[in-house]
Design a protein that fits this description.
Length: about 500
């Protein structure tokens, strides 16, 4: 599992590096005003739906049935072709609605934008450009599931790199477009086409025969649809919460959507590298073990995932909360993205950091149920967690603004992950965490936090005196050399020699 995790995480890291480069260019060009808000809205709406479908939900609904048919010599190819037919039909209908009724769609998903709001008119134009991206990503999700069924993870993990490269290319060619926002929007849709081509080639090379059949409701397809809805909601819990943040942020002052976006980009980095990657690798592994009746193997796999999430997530959350302001400034504060916007994003990031460990763990915990064909239990837990999540969003947003939305998201993820963990333990899906090792990890994390707090101001001052132009980057590096070794030692001791029961 760790080898496959390394492949997915490594390619995800490369994608995120290009993604940060893209966001640096976007922040400098668009800043945090109405134009930036319009683009972020047009980009995030199809991207949220893409994340709901592609990041685990489609695999959870499709892979168990497809793998079972493949193993038993059943009509796996016919089943896959039927599912693809339904995907294309649903997306074409949705695309037609989005292109012809864009204003209505925007009113539904961004009700805070009034008819006279200048952001709304531009957002409608940009959404019409970006929405075909969703159709492409649905096909990518399908092809990725086929590849994952054969333990081929590289192409799927590398595909998002094309999004960043295409957007960087169109941003470079922005003088050829009516504006920078339009250039970025075109890059989004072009990247969707490029990702479909990449995965289609990878599937062909893997010996997977691709075909599409007219939509029909065979017994296998009906089972797929029964699983898909709950799987989308459960596996995409974080994306649903962040989508709710996007919708509610339209009621907040101009710039709120943009500052949320840049904070979310940093927040999603460890989630993509660890949480999503673990869930991607864990789901087919548990699915295969479930087919063999290997209960001990399934429990050990989930235990390993839980330990990795805790050992990496806890120190990352502390560093994100304590150094997030420096990271936002170093990465994004330039051009139109000023000091006020950087401070707002850093505050939001600190609020997101409080829920990082639960957010990392959710994908693995959900995979423990989905791999067994159980999509109802995670959905039930999600519905229970949604009550405090939404209640806190409505209560905190008027007081704390966008940071209140992020704080409510963290609380909601903590409740959701907690419910999943309790249910996993009661059903024998997971073992108890070793208390002594957890205490040691907490102790080394506390030492690291104390070192960071004590050295933050002196290092900043020394870096500014020695290198005024690169003070933030220099201070971040110097602090990393102090804080990270302490935590790395604690995390290695936490994992060293441990074996799941």
């Amino acid at each position: 599992m760790l080898g496959k995790l390394g492949t997915v995480s490594g390619l995800t890291l490369l994608s995120r590096i290009f993604g940060f480069l893209r966001d640096v260019v976007l922040a400098a060009a668009l800043g945090a005003g109405p134009v930036a808000d319009a683009f972020m809205l047009a980009f995030r709406l199809p991207n949220h739906f893409r994340a709901l479908l592609a990041e685990g939900a489609f695999n959870a609904a499709f892979l168990p049935g497809y793998a079972a048919l493949s193993a038993s010599g059943g009509p796996a190819r016919r089943f896959g072709a039927e599912v693809l037919g339904w995907l294309l039909l649903a997306n074409l209908v949705l695309l037609a609605v989005a292109l012809t009724q864009t204003g209505w769609v925007l009113s539904l998903l961004a009700p805070g934008l009034g008819a006279e709001d200048p952001t709304r008119a531009l957002a409608i134009t940009l959404t019409r450009i970006t929405f075909p991206y969703l159709l492409c990503m649905s096909v990518v999700a399908y092809l990725g599931a086929l590849l994952n069924s054969r333990d081929r993870f590289a192409a799927t993990a590398a595909a998002p790199i094309l999004l960043n490269l295409c957007m960087l290319a169109t941003l470079w060619a922005a003088p050829l477009f009516p504006g920078v926002a339009q250039a970025a929007a075109v890059g989004v849709t072009l990247s969707g086409v490029a990702q479909v081509v990449l995965l289609a080639v990878a599937a062909t090379r893997a010996g997977i025969a691709l075909s599409v059949a007219p939509p029909r409701l065979s017994s296998e397809t009906r089972t797929f649809f029964r699983r898909l809805g709950p799987a989308m909601l459960a596996a995409g819990a974080l994306q649903i919460s962040v989508l709710a943040d996007t919708v509610l942020a339209t009621f907040l002052p101009a710039g709120s959507l943009s500052t949320l976006y840049y904070a979310d980009r940093l927040y999603q980095l460890p989630i993509g590298l660890i949480g999503v990657a673990l869930g991607t690798v864990l789901l087919p592994d548990i699915g295969r073990r479930a087919g063999l009746g290997d209960a001990d193997g399934m429990r050990r796999a989930l235990d390993r995932a839980a330990m990795v999430c805790l050992a990496t997530g806890l120190p990352m959350a502390v560093l994100m909360a304590l150094l997030g302001d420096w990271a936002v400034e170093a990465l994004f504060r330039r051009g139109a993205f000023d000091a006020e916007a950087a401070r707002a994003s850093a505050t939001i990031l600190a609020a997101y950091a409080l829920g990082l460990v639960p957010a990392l763990s959710v994908r693995s915990l959900v995979a423990g149920f989905h791999g067994r064909g159980d999509t109802r239990t995670p959905l039930t837990a999600l519905m229970l967690a949604a009550i405090p999540n939404l209640g806190l969003k409505l209560a905190l947003a008027p007081v704390l603004g966008a940071a209140g939305l992020a704080l409510a998201t963290s609380a909601g993820m903590a409740v959701y992950a907690g419910l999943l963990w309790v249910l996993s333990r009661r059903r024998g899906h997971a073992s108890a965490l070793p208390r002594g090792r957890v205490a040691g990890l907490l102790a080394t994390t506390a030492v690291m936090a104390a070192a960071v707090l004590a050295l933050k101001a002196p290092l900043r001052a020394a870096a500014e005196a020695a290198l005024p132009g690169g003070a933030l980057a220099a201070a971040l590096i110097a602090l990393g050399l102090v804080g990270l070794p302490i935590q790395a030692a604690g995390s290695l001791l936490f994992l060293r020699g441990w074996r799941p029961a």
